[in-house]
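Blinded run. Sample ID left blank on purpose so nobody reads anything into the name before looking at the predicted structure. Input follows.
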Amino acid sequence: MRVLFWLVASGSWLLGAVDGVVINASTGKPQAGVMVSLVQPGTGGMQTLASVKSDIDGKFKIEKEIPPGPALLQGQHQGATYNLMLAPGGPTTGLNLNVYDTTSKAGTTKITQHMVLIEPSPSALQIGETILVDNDSKFTFQDPAKGSLQFYVPKSAEDKVQVTINAAGGMPIRRPAEKTAQAGVYKVNYPVRPGETRFDISYSVPASVQFAGKILHARGATRLVTPSSVTLSGDGIESLGQEPQTQAHIYNVAGSTYEVKIEGIGSLRSPEATPQEEDSGAPQIEQAPARVYTRLWEVLGLAFVILGLGGALLYRKGAA
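Blinded prediction complete.
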């Protein structure tokens, strides 16, 4: 009883304290002047519980009642948001929140894989491109002039392009596709933090039995994907087989351009969660039960590796 009375009187039973140091992982030193917020994700969106600025030694302390459930620390530094998850029952003191300096230096990021999903219907061709970008540096990459990513879109799809971004540990957010001086080339301005970032690009073009595209990146494999009821043919592509679970057809693109003939109609994707307009960086809250197609790209990514190796071996064996 005395312990309970002391907790209530001191306020430590109701009032949680979150403290720690903001570390600039680019320099390895404490970072002053970072706005640190305690936020809590929920079905109604993100709620900011309190905010403070890190002091000259990078230290911060937030004294605020934390409701039950997971919470996040968010740090704002040079136009990018950095997150630290606070698990229920986990430590809330002596924390390190890492942030990074921003750079526009070319070569900071590299594209590791590019997937183009082609879904024909009687009325249109639905195109979904996924580009995986890896940043293994100690800096966040952002180039306002050239964009953090550039990609090609056919003329018939102009003004119909949607870009959704998934950063590591974050939830989907939406960014506009901006035209560049080159015809058909668009850019996206988004701070690419260290780690892997996924760009999902979607658009539609009028129904056709042909589709052509351009690859703007020098590195990273490009794969074309179609539903099981749809096949492709054309110069510069080779079949890697079918993904075992979805039976999707997978094709490798050898050069920087491709033009394919399409046979059949079908769809592979399922509805996705609505992306956020702001870069909250918070984990996605889903109430729907898990479905295979909600992890389609992860499944296909593994299949690409397996089928890619198998295709290469069959190709060599046939050439011999």
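Unblinding after everyone has recorded impressions. The helical segments are 2-10, 296-319.
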